[in-house]
Amino acid sequence: MTSHEHEHDEGAHGAEPIRGVDSTAMHAVVDDLAASLHRYVDTAVGVRAEFGATEADEDPRILALEATVGTLNAKLYDLVHETLGLHADLTGMSWDDEEPEGPSEEGEVDTFHLGFVVGPPQAASDLTLDSVLDMVDNGGAELARTLQEAGFDVVEWGAARGAPVHFGEDDVDDEEE
Question: Alpha carbon of 65 to those of 22, 57, 69, 92, 167: distances in Å?
Fold first, then answer.
């Protein structure tokens, strides 16, 4: 079982409302997360005063704080999930000024893409870039399973090297326009 696979507690994941939840641990993580974000902003301002954008993006202080924020986001997700049974989407970003569309209509589907730019292993290894596709394929299978367990209908999925996977005729038509 990986760290993201888990057994569901009937209380947190059950159909009945949960009363008397102690939210102290969740609030403590939110406080830590807020403090880390403030440290990130302060550090980013300081690093940017010393370096150009590219160098600042790769500065170890920035990378360490980004890792801390990511870890705290995961910790908050786990606590919310374990305590309340919710699959909180707290880390997505959106620049769309439109109002949310609301629930999807019956039969509506959309495509989602996740890409990686991968270089060869930095240390001596039997692995080559050819082995990356197998790893991405295994990750895709796990992600598809996670989506299905969350109630989504995963109509198709695929892994490819060099270009995104295209599904159905709609994606081909979009490219031709």
Answer: 28, 11, 6, 18, 37
